[in-house]
Amino acid sequence: MSVNTSFTEPWSGYLANAEWPSTPRLVLLALINIPLLSIVLNVLYQMLPRSSSRPPVVFHWIPFFGSAAAYGKDPIEFFTKCREKYGNVFTFILLGRRITVTLGPQGNDFVLGGKHTVLAAEDVYAPLTNPIFGKDVVYDCPNESLMEQKRFVKVSLTVDKFRSYIGMIDDEVSEFLDHDPSFRIYQMNDINEWGSFFVLNTLSEITILTAARTLQGSEIRNNMNKGFAQLYSDLDHGFTPLHWMFQNLPLASYRKRDAAHAKMSEFYQQILRDRRASQSGHEEDDVMSSLMKQHYRDGRPLRDHEIAHILIALLMAGQHTSSSSISWAMLHIADRPDIQEALYEEQVKFFGTPDGGLRDVVYEEIRQLPVLDAAIRETLRMHPPIHSIMRKARSDIPVPPTLGAPSEDNVYVVPKGDIVLASPIISQVDPQTWQDARTWEPTRWYDADGVAAQANKQYEEGVKVDFGFGLVSKGTVSPYLPFGAGRHRCIGEQFAYVQVSMIIIALIRKLEFRLEEEFPQPDFSVDEFEIYVYLAIATMSSSLPAVFVLVIILGLM
Ligand code: HEM
């Protein structure tokens, strides 16, 4: 008893003398400390022992928000740093989702060559793309149907079509240079003065005009200036991480996205009805006319809304990819007068006429222009437009030990529900593979036995499989994969190549370029408003465990 007394007396004395805050103050204090407590709990949670077969988790302070800031700011730097610390396989938290990254050629092969039954693209991309592309196409249908839809489109991307597109693209660029206000000095034919233009805006416009004229058809091209561009822009603003996380929020961008989709879908379907009524559908030489003639394997023709939605998907899939590639190529060309000169000399060598002019390009000749070919390949090596390719694990998947393993007799297992992510750009700029990896150096592609040529050979000549839309590389271990691999490999590659080549040729023939400012760095940053939304959600959701702990503490008192 005496022992008890000697212990309790000093404590009870302290409690009696302490100044305790009133209840409202206590609640306020607790509220202020919730974020702090949630951070502490999150850090403690990360220190708990975990199964050694789980890939290491990238350390992060804020629960739910995870590594969103570092990944969103510069994914390449983020992946590179994580690779140095954790190896080729690691998991990071992105806005409440677990993303397991597998890097390097083996990592690309793991994700891109994975079986569809266990690694599904639609489970990741659908919330973002379905409201934009629309019903029953791409990721809003079984994967087998997507494979058929890719076959339908490929049928319309033939060499014959490409031959006719060459002249159309050339015409569009010439028309643009002749009329756009940014090229006033060119229009005045003043060869002694420099004009200037915003590279990305201008080349985005040229990209959409050339895609509309070739793939999308004359009705779309003719309506480009009459509201179609606004619809495109409203749809495009629905392509953000926020729209990926939440399919529907009561925000203007969501309302505009949905209204634009409805209008665009109806616009295409009206063209289909008009073409049928006037019997002109079969005379046009575009993707729509080709889709009107196709059938699924069970004999069913495509329904109008499916044709409309495939065309919307193609418009969106081809726009940023091509326009960013052309923009980076032109920036580098402007920055390297030697390559610019070589590109022009190449035009003179191949297409020069006795009277000092340049004749029209023929489709088959495009791939035989080594300088142009190297400039495009090098641009796609350093600036592939898609830095993260994702799939969702539908079951637990063991990671091949060659990619990384916790120990000799154990392997990592990606748990069911994780998103797996490959980032081919990491192997495309890996200094272990490429000399001066971060330098744009087209000449590296000239050497037929060099690293670049070998990488390209691996890309094009590996094991081929037909997933339903023609033979493609199965999922490849090449360090160069700008158009992806496996069943989701790009079907726009040849078209993009024609488009990018012809736009560069048309510009190089008519103008000389130099940079007005410093060479720009890639800007991956997300809209500021979105960051606030993520932080608010992070605070709310991560507060729950902290609130729970606080309630217990307060209850105990
Ligand atoms: C898929 C790159 C242009 C249509 C892909 C993928 C990549 C890619 C990396 C694979 C995505 C994945 O595995 O999740 C590029 C680049 C382009 C380009 C670098 C231009 C320089 C185009 C164009 C079109 C297009 C012009 C349309 C005309 C598609 C389609 C898919 C695809 C339909 C298939 C999606 C799937 O199966 O899930 N592209 N693309 N792309 N791309 Fe492209």
Itemize the secondary structure elements and their pairings.
Blueprint: H1 2-17, H2 23-47, H3 68-73, H4 75-86, E1 89-94, E2 97-102, H5 104-112, E3 119-120, H6 122-133, H7 143-155, H8 159-179, H9 184-187, H10 199-216, H11 218-222, H12 224-236, H13 241-245, H14 252-278, H15 287-291, H16 304-335, H17 337-351, H18 363-366, H19 370-382, E4 389-393, E5 397-398, E6 413-414, E7 419-422, H20 424-428, H21 451-461, E8 464-466, E9 471-473, H22 493-510, H23 528-556
Parallel strand pairs: 2-7
Antiparallel strand pairs: 1-2, 3-4, 4-7, 5-6, 8-9
Helix pairs in contact: 2-23, 8-10, 8-22, 10-16, 12-14, 14-16, 16-19, 16-22, 17-19
Bound molecules: protoporphyrin IX containing FE.
CATH superfamily of the largest domain: Cytochrome P450
Tertiary shape: globular
Give me the secondary-structure category.
Answer: mainly alpha
CATH topology category name of the largest domain: Cytochrome p450
CA-CA gap between termini:
25 Å
Q: Determine Rg (CA atoms, Å).
A: 28 Å
Give the names of the bound compounds: protoporphyrin IX containing FE
Count up the helices.
23
The total strand number stands at 9
Strand order of the largest sheet: 1-2-7-4-3
Number of domains as seen in the coordinates: 2
What CATH architecture label of the largest domain applies? Orthogonal Bundle
Q: Considering DSSP H and I runs of 4 or more, what fraction of the residues is helical?
A: 55-70%
Strand residues, percent = 5-15%
What low-confidence regions span 5 or more consecutive residues with pLDDT below 50? 1-17
User: pLDDT average, as an integer?
Assistant: 89
Major sheet attributes: 5 strands, mixed
CATH class of the largest domain: Mainly Alpha
Binding site for heme: 490
Organism: Grifola frondosa (Maitake)
Protein name: Lanosterol 14-alpha demethylase
Subcellular location: Membrane
